[in-house]
Amino acid sequence: MMQEPIDIVDGVLRAVKSVKNPLFFKTERGYQAELYYALKNELQAVAIPPMVFEVEAQKRDIRHHTTLRPDIILHVPATSEEHDPRKDNYIVFELKLRGSARKASEDYSAIDEIIDKLAYRLAFFININSSKHFLNQYSGPNRQLIHAVCVRLNPKGLVEGTHAYYDPSNELVEVRFDNRSS
Questions:
Q1: Which residues have C-beta within 8 Å of that of residue 143, sequence separation ≥ 6?
Q2: How many other CB atoms are there within 10 angstroms of residue 108's CB atom?
Q3: Domain boundaries, the chain
Q4: DSSP secondary structure string, the chain?
Q5: pLDDT in tens, the chain (182 residues)
Q6: Among 15, 52, 148, 163, fewest CB within 10 Å belongs to which?
Q7: Are 67 and 56 in contact (CB under 8 A)?
């Protein structure tokens, strides 16, 4: 059983803050790999086997009704063709390096498709090496399930960013953070 969403969100934010090496802020793939390991560490209490984190898991159109390849997912992999692919999907992550409004919109659309077709319970859009999350421009149906994070290193090498989400009254909440805060 998964923990309360707030515990999961806090764990994801701790993982984001733990990526500090400037090298990983230069490429999406490098950041993705480092975040993957940080997520496994921070959310190990949540990801109880048989749940696993996977990177760019290939979805098959015939089985999943989408061919999207999410950057990172937390789910229970299907063990047979009889397993309902909409069951046991927990968190989906889409990452973008210095994503523009257009690129963020494309990732938000991908998140919507993944949530709608595969019933993921929570989603994160992470805009790497950027100060913009673009959640304020999102108008899709899954506002309550999506968290957006923009994260970058400041000139002193401090990880800083903003975590954005819609509260239950559909108001956009933006919380600034740095890796000095827990």
A1: 166, 170
A2: 22
A3: 5-178
A4: ----HHHHHHHHHHHHHH---GGGGS-HHHHHHHHHHHHHHHTTTTS-TT-EEEESPPPPHHHHS-----SEEEE---SSTTS-TTSSEEEEEEEEES--HHHHHHHHHHHHHHHHHH--SEEEEEEET-S---GGG--SS-GGGEEEEEEEE-TTS-EEEEEEEE-TTS-EEEEEEETT--
A5: 455 566 899 999 999 999 999 999 999 999 999 999 999 999 988 777 788 888 876 555 444 455 688 999 998 887 766 667 778 889 999 999 999 999 999 999 999 999 999 999 999 999 999 999 999 999 999 999 999 999 999 999 999 999 999 999 999 999 999 988 65
A6: 52
A7: no
The reply to whether the predicted model has a pTM over 0.85 is yes
The Cα–Cα gap between 139 and 90 comes to 22
